[in-house]
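seq:
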Amino acid sequence: MPAKNPDLHGSAPDKSDVVLLLIDVINDLEFEGGEDLLRHAVPMADRIARLQERARREGVPVVYVNDNFGRWRSDLNAQVQHCLEDDVRGRPVVERLRPGDDDYFVLKPKHSGFFSTTLDVLLDYLGARTLVLTGMAANICVLFTANDAYMRDFHLTVPSDCVASNTEEENRHAIEQMRRFLGADVRPSDELKFRELARRR
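struct:
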């Protein structure tokens, strides 16, 4: 039976087997350990930006899945503005990964992008079967989101160069966990082909 509102009243007009998720990249990094994470997050952000541009060109929806960082305001623009104008540690990351007008935004209260959020509904309307997970931290919010996506039978791709953690060791361990136990494709982003992912069933 077709959906009653196939595009969520115009809010989700895209249809795509593949969706790119950017997890917690709109982040001021003003917390203990933020300096360590920043060192890995800036090069990560450069690679995500290139992947994001390819996704947009190929019609792959981009979804920002972002923590509220204790403020609980579902206003992505306000969070972006805070990170760009308040001289915070995470500014270089946000400068590289500003949301576009056609991107989607899901606010999450906890580690997983699925817990008490609208992500399930959005992905259903988009028709997604394969999720490309990027962002930070790989060993916390990316991993928790990947776990929940796996339990929902999504195909997972986690480009190893598009996630970051406080240390390289923690990052490698998280990537290996997702590869080994969640079946994630962890090839680097320059080897990722969205059309190939769309054909994978």
